[in-house]
Amino acid sequence: GASVRAPRITTKNLISIIFCEAVAIYGIITAIVFSAKLTNGENIREFTTSHYFTGYSLFWAGLTVGLSNVACGVAVGIAGSSTALSDAHDGTLFVRVLITEIFGSVIGMFGLIVGLIISGSVDDFS
Prior knowledge:
Blueprint: H1 2-5, H2 15-37, H3 49-89, H4 94-120
């Protein structure tokens, strides 16, 4: 759309894509942390309350990170579209609108921090 009217904005607006790729890295970080908490449970005869707490904590930490990353993706998408349109209209607005896009990207970082705090508070599943 907007890059047809103003071809100069094509490379500037790749920043929105980079922000969304950072959110994917948050999910990979979470998966690595969670995999370190899990072990093979073949030798466990009965589950204790500690096992249930670990399982539910990891589930809710993953759900927190996932839903915050979805919200972050929607926010970055909407802000990125607005950034492209405003930059096509007036080139001086790019940095000002980019700041709101950064605020939308921080939502995913907050979700990652909360997920790491939740998963760090549980014992290893062994």
